[in-house]
Amino acid sequence: MRPKMIATLIAVAAAAAFAAAAGGCSTGEDAYARRREMMVRTQIATRGISDERVLEAMLSVPRHRFVPGNLRGSAYIDSPLPIERGQTISQPYIVALMTESLRLEPGARVLEIGTGSGYQAAVLAEIADSVFTIEIIPELAATAAALLDSLGYARVKVRAGDGFDGWPEHAPFDGIIVTAAAPSVPQPLVDQLAEGGRLVIPVGDERQDLHVYEKRGGRLHLLETLPVRFVPMTGKIRSSGR
After folding, report:
1. Model pTM?
2. What is the Cα–Cα distance from 170 to 168, expressed in whole angstroms?
3. Are residues 229 and 135 in the same domain?
4. Sorting pLDDT into bands at 50, 70 and 90, what band is 27?
5. 90 an active-site residue?
6. Based on the domain organization, do 96 and 30 belong to the same domain?
7. At the N or C end, where does the chain have fewer CB atoms within 10 A?
8. How far is CA 53 from CA 57, 110, 142, 178, 211, in A?
């Protein structure tokens, strides 16, 4: 994205933050908005993320609401952060990168495996028409669902379950994103991906790479890879032999 366009996005966000403050927004929320603008400017836009919709989504979603209260001061740093049950919320740049890699079109239907605190789902919901997200830890699923609902993300549907099986009742999906590392790509996710759709998933155990696939002719075609580090995907994937 051109510097002028990036500056425009930041200016729009700043104006929105000022308007919110004028309408009674707390100084704390205003400070978080400024940190969010800096996050997009220094961590994301300057590192090659150029999809305007992704940048706007990262500006809009209050990441500090998706981290534990004692870590809210660190919500906008360039790092993953721990959340409940030994899980993490991904580094902002990685969230933006994975979202951009899906190349979502208007009206898209997206499946996320690994809800965590709900942050990635919220970012996706700023772009996609509907987001279906699955979390294997029931407590995390319940907490994320309540938070997303309180923030007005009606486009997101949360389910507790094993992401290996996907969500066949709502398939096919235009994009599938997996936020935990799997030793291989679960076949149900391949089956539920629409023709021409993209699947973004970290693959590996000790050594992990983020794989971006596109489905053509009923098969996955690898487009690009990037070294990453995610928590491991659990459940059936560990005993499937696939």
Report:
1. 0.87
2. 5
3. yes
4. low
5. yes
6. no
7. C
8. 6, 15, 28, 20, 22
